[in-house]
Amino acid sequence: MAKVPYVCSECHLVLEDGVDVCPRNPDARVSLEHQGYVIIMNPSRSEIAKRLKIDQPGKYALKVSVR
Ligand SMILES: [Zn+2]
Which residues constitute the domain of residue 17? Predict the structure, then answer.
């Protein structure tokens, strides 16, 4: 059974196994409902990073739903 990681609803960061608080946005809600992953290596040169307002390298979800 594959574990679904939590994703921060604020910065879309995919959190590590067992982590349910975003280290960058401790107050933001996290979600298990998300779609599509993107790994951003170089935010300043990435169109997706600009669109998602990502300014740090990492693994992100494209879509995050928060109930
Ligand atoms: Zn975050």
Answer: 7-65
pTM tops 0.85, yes or no: yes
State the Cα–Cα distance between residues 35 and 45, nearest whole angstrom. Answer: 23
Q: Report the domain count for the chain.
A: 1
Gap from CA of 24 to ligand 1 centroid (Å): 5
pLDDT digits (tens, 9 = 90+) for 10-47: 999 999 999 999 999 999 999 999 999 999 999 999 99
**Does residue 2 have a pLDDT over 80?**
no
CA angle 10–16–18, rounded 5-degree value = 105
Q: Tell me the residues surrounding ligand 1 (ion) with CB < 5 Å.
A: 8, 10-11, 13, 22, 24-25
- CATH code at position 50: 2.20.28.90
